[in-house]
Amino acid sequence: MKYIIFILVIITGSMLLISCNSNREKEIGSTGSAEVSEAKLDSLINLMTLDEKLDLIHASSSFTSGGISRLDIPELVFSDGPHGVRHEHGRGWYALEDADDRSTYLPVGISLASTWNKDIGYDYGEVLGNEAKERGKDVLLGPGINIIRSPLNGRNFEYLSEDPYLTGVMGTGYVRGLQDQGVGSMPKHYTANNQETDRHNIDAQISRRALHEIYFPAFEMVVRDGGAWSIMGAYNKVNGQYTTHHEYLNNVILKGEWEFDGAVVSDWASVKDTREALLYGTDIEMGTELLRDFDNPEYDEFYLANPAKEMIESGEVDESYVDEKVRRVLRLMYRTTAMTDHGQGQRNVDAHQQLALEVAREGIVLLKNDGLLPLDREEIQTVAVIGHNATRKFAERGGSSQVPALYEITPLEGIQNLVGDDVEVIYAEGYEPYYDESLFRGDGGDAASQSRENERDVELARTANEDLMQEAVALAEEADAVIFVGGWIHGHEGMPWGQGTYDAEARDKLNLKLIFGQEDVIRQINSVNDHTAVVLMGGSNVEMENWLPDTPAYLQAWYPGMEGGTAIAEILFGEVNPSGKLPMTFANSHEDYPSHSIGEFPGDGTVDYAEDIYVGYRYFDTQDRDVIYPFGFGLSYTTFEFSDLQVERDDDKVLVQSTVTNTGEREGAEVVQVYVHHKDPSVERPVRELKGFEKVTLEPGASATVNIELDESAFMYYHPEDLKWVLESGSYEVQVGNSSRDIKLQDEVVW
Ligand code: BGC
Prior knowledge:
Blueprint: E1 6-12, E2 16-17, H1 22-28, H2 38-46, H3 50-56, E3 59-61, E4 64-68, E5 73-79, H4 109-115, H5 118-134, E6 139-140, H6 164-179, E7 184-185, E8 203-205, H7 208-215, H8 217-224, E9 230-232, E10 237-238, E11 241-242, H9 247-257, E12 263-265, H10 274-279, H11 306-313, H12 320-335, H13 350-363, E13 365-369, E14 382-386, H14 411-419, E15 424-428, H15 447-453, H16 455-460, H17 466-478, E16 481-487, H18 518-528, E17 532-537, E18 553-558, H19 564-572, H20 594-597, E19 606-608, H21 617-622, E20 640-650, E21 653-662, E22 668-678, E23 689-698, E24 703-711, E25 717-718, E26 725-726, E27 731-737, E28 743-750
Helix pairs in contact: 2-12, 4-13, 5-6, 5-13, 6-8, 13-19, 14-19, 17-18
Bound molecules: beta-D-glucopyranose.
The site of beta-D-glucopyranose has 7 residues, from loops.
């Protein structure tokens, strides 16, 4: 098993608080899964006709598959999505009106990763599993664990990180928490679904080494360490073959090397070929282009329905391929709530909302603070809150991950709730979303491709509304402090989710320039009030060079979920000490990223991953390129010191021990990050790769000794020609720090 990390935290000093969620566990409980014997599966399969078997391996409605009433086998019920249980769709494609489906809306995937808190990964999955169970779902379509290759990918908000190890660890916690509720996880989209432009057909050209070192590890971890019961294939091709029925990805690696015994489910409409789907590992086919006539679905015409039957009856493909799929589907069903009663589950309970708040508190990242924060409500009489995003709601936006949130506290509400009568809060919108219908013209193709054709129109969406801006500036002038809340958006009023959005499915961003004239607004505010904190939402960074230098404080809030406004206010006013760390590098422009400067994005028909393994900080640090904020970076209101690094090899393990001390005046949390580097490799390797981390919470003056054990896989690389993992002898640096650019201590170990 790769990347087995054992952690031991020893308490020294006054007190060490490690996130522990025993109260929530008590409230939610764990149900576990029901494993079934292979003999039982055999006997069931023996009872089935070919038609019945085929029924089990394709969709029966928009979010169900299978069902054989003669044998008392129910349908398998799926639901999106990664950060909350999606609307009820009934059997069709449109959300039902008046359904009882209000749910907990957790901060999005990139927020979860920014917590760097492994316990929270588990809790996050547990809450989702509990709510999915209450809604009668057997499998939840998450987590989204594609690597953030380019900051322009419209779905980065759903994904976790540019780093495979961080993605894998947080994703593994999520999978375990979810499945302990008896609800199956479906990590997605396997693999290299790193862009939305032309997502149904793009052919990603990736070396074997990059696949194994960058695009596979998180999937391997959720399968081997997390025990995922299903995996979702992606839309795109990898090296010429569609990933959903890919011989190497599914048969050789996933089901072969990683011994995955669950079901590979297609993305909705990602099966493109019956023979390949039969032979190359697709176990369930969901939603297909045959269903573009949404009101008259012909499920019998699915690739894995009648066309598969013909192929088997003609002898072209052996029926044993279908039996193997049925076995995997039944195994999945026995493990989930589908065949066994796993209890009721709970929805919209306090414990779930509390978790939404905790993730937001730990996932928001403080990136700049020239002494402005935390704001003191005893001193401030008037605060101006400025920006459209201060009042905008995000839960029902962005694509298939939309959530019918029970409620959503906006930043303006969070600030008002927190300061009460102590501070006068005045609000101005400052800028407004701009849309041009021509951006979305045409029915065919992906929205992302359409917007690329309309680049000139998109640029128009960057101009400020002069009246709104002047109103905001006037307000800023009279306030003691300003909180500007802006950034990206999901969707917009009056249009369906797939259209007119920035962080959204089927759409990539064109660049990282702030939209709707926000740069002008921030600059003008800064010129009249030098007590301005900027809070940005979104699934990626924005260009900063024109506004950051004059801005005293900047908080990256991502899309922080239903309690996001509360958490933002608590951090701004110092009720909560920020502890989030960036899960991706923030460079100034998308052109600085290796996917653009070396490789291609979004390509044209094919996309060349020429940057190879040099994704994110692996590139920026190895090439010593300027970044605005490095991977792993995030500020606190207290300070920490790292000391006493000891690195010792014990046979096939390396123990990394170091002490971290809170040297400031308030409680806070720090993430100890362990990177590894071969000093004289025979093939090119990055100057550092994350292989371990631990988050510790410390009272002022307290210290903790953090022990992180790395196994030999943490030192290996994938040999580009021999096509296998290699542990090269030689001397390795073990670097310990609190960002990829702030290595505090380092030592050596020899293999
Ligand atoms: C998305 C998946 C999603 C599925 C079902 C697809 O278009 O890519 O992430 O789970 O639809 O809604």
